[in-house]
Amino acid sequence: xxxxxxxxxxxxxxxxxxxxxxxxxxxxxxxxxxxxxxxxxxxxxxxxxxxxxxxxxxxxxxxxxxxxxxxxxxxxxxxxxxxxxxxxxxxxxxxxxxxxxxxxxxxxxxxxxxxxxxxxxxxxxxxxxxxxxxxxxxxxxxxxxxxxxxxxxxxxxxxxxxxxxxxxxxxxxxxxxxxx
Length: 180
Ligand code: FES
Prior knowledge:
Glutaredoxin
């Protein structure tokens, strides 16, 4: 990877989670034991907590696991899928060994991070944040807050290393290395 795009080191990304299929019996047991709602309002609140707990344990939350959550809480499946895809911290597939986190905070957004994200989606063959490329090599995440390096925006971290002043060409260069 070119040194010219490398700006500085930041906190390393969390280690990749082992890619195990989620045991749906485990999910059902979790729901039976810990997530029993008294009414629809509580059911909606518990749904997000349940998804987060599943991800905490397995490293991701599959759509099958979300279906168990929806069924147990008596919530429409579409509603639970919407939670899964809305929250940037939740992902439906395991993290790959390579994690690209694009900053989409206000400053980076003004500097064109949205366009770079679209390019990444195309290059990686994914359609939304939190997904892993079909070859399993790269997980793409988006951080909606500020990553604290606006002066080099638009920026991103790749496996914990910060890359700044990104352009479509620099993004291509980074992705080419990751997909080798
Ligand atoms: S908004 Fe991206 S680093 Fe501040």
